[in-house]
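Support request, please re-run this one:
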Amino acid sequence: MFSDHGEQLYHCAARVSSNMDMGKMMMVGEWFASYVLNKLAEMVSLHLESQYDLFTGVKTMVEDVKARLPRIRAVMQAAEGRPIKDPALATWLRELKDAAYEADDVLDELEFKELRYKLHNKRKLSDFASSAVKLLKHFIMSDNELENLKNLVGNLDKIYTNINYMEEQLKDYNSKQRSVTRETSSIIQDIVFGREIERDVILDVLLPSADEPGSSIKCGTGGSSYSSLGVLPIVGIGGVGKTTLAQLIYNDERVVRHFEQRNWVYVSDNFDVKRIAKELIYSSTDDWITHDISLEGILMKLRDATRNKRFLFVLDDVWDETGSKWKELHGVLTSGAKGSIVLVTTQSPVVAEVMGTMDPIELNSLRQDDFWRLFEHSAFGENILEEERREKLQIIGRKISEKLHGLPLAGKVLGSLLKSRLDEGYWKMILESEWWEHEYVLDNILPSLALTYEHLNANLKQCFAYCSIFPRSYIFEKDRLVQMWMAQGFIQKKNQIRMRMEDIGSHIFDELTSRYFFLPTLNNKYVMHDLIRELAVCISLDECLVIGDDKGEIPETIRHLTLRTDKLDVFMGAHKLQNLRSILFFGNYDSEIVYHFLDGMLKRSKSLRVLDLSYLNSKLKKLPDAIGGLLHLRYLDVSCTKIEQLPKSICWLCHLQVLNVRSCRAIRLPEDMNKLTNLRHLYGEVDTISQIAGIGDLTSLQELEEFRVAKKRRHEIGELKGLRNLRRRLSIKNLENIDSKEEAMEAMLKDKEYLTALHLEKNLNAECPPDAEKEIFEGLQPHASLERLKIMGYGGTIFPTWMVENKFLSNLESIYLESCISLESIPPLGQLPFLKYLRIENMPVIKRIGREFYGDTAVAFPFLQQLIFNDFKEWEEWLEADGAKFLPRLRTLHLHKCFKLRKVPFIFLSSSLLELSIQDCCDFGVCLESLTSLTTLRIARYRSQVSLCLSNLRALEHLDLDNCPEMKLVRELQNLTALQILHLRKCPAQEFLCLSNLRALKHLHLENCPVMKLVGGLQFLTTLETLKLTDCPNLIEPSKPVQLHVGQGLRTLNRLDIGGTILLRNLRILLGSLPSLQHLHIHSGYGVTNFTGEQELWFQQLTSLQELKIDHFQTLESLPTSLVNSSSIRRLTISFCYNISLQENKLPTALEELRIIVCPLLKSRCLRGGADWPKIAHIPFIHIDNEIIQQP
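Re-run finished. Output below.
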């Protein structure tokens, strides 16, 4: 997690700006300050236009501010993200930012008063005449507030008087600063570890398929299909090894032989076409190039030098995202021979997109083993150490390397730091400290990453810097972070662009992600590499702080604070919190202490925009009333807390945009929640949100997961009328509480253009005449842009017009219809041009599906891929489309609980269908022969006595037969040579099973097939990975053992689950040697008291076993004796073995986890103090029944 304030912060500050004081600072936030100052000028003009007699000279001052803003903005932009060491300049910039923050608060308070006035009077300012507007503004604005506005303008005027000096200081400072770059060359500096895969991919592109020594290179062609010039970008985060990989390619002997001409140019952020062209020509011509040659002249020379030659040019570290300069250079390089390549390395995906002619090579961190080899080489080099000392350092080194997340530059730099002192104590000190606390490390790593930051625009810099308030290894959620940016005012909607603030923020986040500031994980979450996060910390030291248990001073400039301390009393009464705009809690707190701390903090921190308690581990039951005084609060998150009550005062927070009360199951909301008119995102349990009366007043709301219609005031369907901004999914339930079409139309679903999914549900028990129900649903017509529709409980005999005519919902991609109990025919859904998913369930009246299902169209269901019919009790026939083409792209078909269905147009689906699932249906056996493209077939509860005809299904990869009492597979399996998965369960009629032809089989499950005999054994299944054999007592005949030949057998088997006494007695005969087995589950060994000698021998050969589960051996008295000698086993579970003990056994020393479940004798002996405790005390994790006995 994130390190405490203290040494880490000050080390970082020392590197950046010598000391953390008002005289030395990092400038960040130019974009925000400029925005606020523009807003200030506009607001002052608006509010003081008729008050010039009251404040003489204000008009002139305002006009001056407007005129000066471009210069002020230019100065701030020049200082953005740079260490400012001149005390006067730092102070001036700080005063400017402070003035912007103060102005933002004042303007925000004025907007708050206007919102409160509107809410109180339930009228809008637009209802008044122009003169009344002016009068109202004067009424809202007190004389003190007008004076404050004038003073703010006056302060800016004073600050501006020094701008000439500041411009000179910055100009002088920047002229002395060199860009943070390092010049590279084509020479490989060190051994390269890993990257073999990436190297080979690139070489496949660069080189011809056959590079014969005697062939002429002029006639050769590259491995790609480009005509004359291919551009291959290598893109990745700074320090990931792009240049190193390019050097590896450039110096490969095959590349040297293949290309007539090779050149390397270090480009950096100055894409100087003339300089680059000169360097490309330098080694390829003997002509002298004069210094005063024109750009056109040098480009012509480059064209001549490369004409008809196959060349490889490397442009290293490119940053020009416009592409305009590259176009100049590209134009003269196209005269080269076919197969010529330009290899580009860049940190910018935009550069890769602009310059590349093929998919870029995205370079990620090194794999763990490769990174360790790099780190070990950097740390030890050629030093010869005594074996014991080296092993100790290696153990520490591995732990250090794990903290670097595979970034090669970090490994090299930190490794070289360790190399300077091969001392165990020093290495432990590095391990126990945060590695970036070392100035040497930062000086050699951050500059490479800072280049990416410098190329961001000011708005992106602001948003990125804010991320430093989150702990290290924090899991980012995109929407959550964007909402915090919005709350801080970092995202502003531009009038000329029809985009929500959320969409703009999402674009910013995507831009940062594309530049590797965020790294995607599973489930649409993101993380930030430690080095990137440290960059954010360094550029935002004056405003953002994470503070831990060690007491640390909070600088007066801090505006965004994260508390990761359990000692809140340290900060009680702190007087420096009044400037805070964000506060996040991470820690365990006593409820009384945290309540008093919050109360005091909220009373002081009036500028707070973001308050996040969602990571608060406390029994806090309510928030202080003082929260009602946070006029600027826009983001409040109390999710996953114990809070049961929000104070009434929260309903007056007119600026609140986000309220999250998810997983606060007992929470009660105040009565006036509908007064939060600026609320855009409301998250909570459905039962909680449904409490809100008059939710329709929240007209800014962007999402509403579920709305429950009720016949009580302010809970009617009409509440949805004003919620025109709703997005994503809306579920409307209890539709039986709507009485007429007119009432349904009040929801105005037809106008909700941003909804992508709609769920309409009526209670099945509510009675309503079918015609009346159809009319009500007519009034619920959604917008034509809808993509997903679900209808449950519809009681009409036919669907409303908007479901029948395709012109209304032509964008639908998914439809789910359930429990339409009176519906006589399915609407013509085949007319929907983009429908991909269709699921229809519980249609008890439908008897026939035919032409009406497809509609009047040449191709019905042109894009449908998945079709599910479930619970059609009376359905008998499914007819084809009378000559029309239908379901041309269907991939998956499920027919479940269609008990009477006998006719299905399988023959028309044969070319596209890949997956078929049949459950509780009639006999389709012969019809399945035509489905030759099928790869997956599942059949369950199949009652037919006719054998299935599967022999034609040669593409089948997955076959699952479950509870098919009459089914027999005779020779069909022998033809299914592509089969990879075979599951047979509850097939009592299956007498014989031969698997000898199934050489591709990977997963085999045979369960509860009592008479089935295995013909030919399992030794042919040389690719089998998992095997489950249960309740198949006649599977083998012990009198006829199957010989496993050397080199054959289940050598790839990884997981085995086997049960039944007979099978367990014949493990060696049935399975032979299993050298790759890692997971073993044996069970249902009835009557077994001890393992036989043959079984013990079988256990001994399981040399890769990591996990063993033994259960339901009621009479078993001891474990396999060979278990103690296993060096691989890590986890052991024993369950429902009533007589077992460890009296005769010892457990393996490598065991890491032991679980005992319902083994009374064993439990009594294995508890602390029990007879067998000494035998298990060495195991780190011990769990007995529902209790953890021991854990690391």
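The radius of gyration is 37 Å. Residues 1-25, 123-140, 210-226, 1042-1047 have pLDDT under 50 and may be disordered.
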